[in-house]
Amino acid sequence: MPIADPHCHTTASDGMVTPAELVAAAVAAGLNLIAVTDHDTMRSVKDVQERGQAMGLQVVAGQEVTTAWPPQTHILGWFLERPVRMGMSAADTVAAIHDQGGLAIVPHPFMPVYFGSIQPGMLRRLLEVHPVDGIEVMFTAPIGRHRRKALDAFVAANAERLGAHIGGSDSHFGSHDIGRVVTAYEGDFRAAIAERRTRPRLGMRRAVPTGIAIRQQWRALVEVPIRRLRGQL
Asked: What is the 3-state secondary structure (H, E, C) of the chain?
């Protein structure tokens, strides 16, 4: 059964690896498919796709889109033709992804943070307006036992509007973290999502060195926002 890690970042946003390093790490990890989902940009997609094709790795064009409302929630877009504008509502973001034939996925939900992760009430309101194509039910970020139980219950109660179950590593460090959480699928990846033939599972157990993790946080919280304000992203 093919294995995908459909949530990966590069130096085009707050990732710590180049397109070449990402592809090499994915191939070394035995993955069949990855999705490039840099924050609010698709600048690295073509490069990763070309390098992936040369090495027998399927690469899905994607983006992790930052919404304005709910505050700073993230929505993944897969199979995109062009970038999705950041700063829209979650509902409008999902609509914009669907309008260009893409798939909208909810990443790392219910985390105990004030940005980047949609919360139960917000997700409920989103689903009242737009169903999504999938939701990460396995991911590397810790959410605690209580939130895990709440997520499992929410997914069970809203299965029809949440789509396929997805696992993703939210890789920012290439060989240090790619493939830690993956999605197994049957046949074509997009068809498997539509038909809900996906199986999230734990992959390789790897620890990110502390120094690299600290540098990535500085990059995500300081460097990338400054570059965006300067129009460099």
From this structure: CCEEEEEECCCCCCCCCCHHHHHHHHHHCCCCEEEECCECCCCCHHHHHHHHHHCCCEEEEEEEEECCECCCCEEEEECCCCCCCCCCEHHHHHHHHHHCCCEEEECCCCCCCCCCCCCHHHHHHHHHHCCCCEEEEEECCCCHHHHHHHHHHHHHHCHHHHCEEEEECCECCHHHCCCCEEEEECCCHHHHHHCCCEEEEECCCCCCCHHHHHHHHHHHHHHHHHHHHCCCC
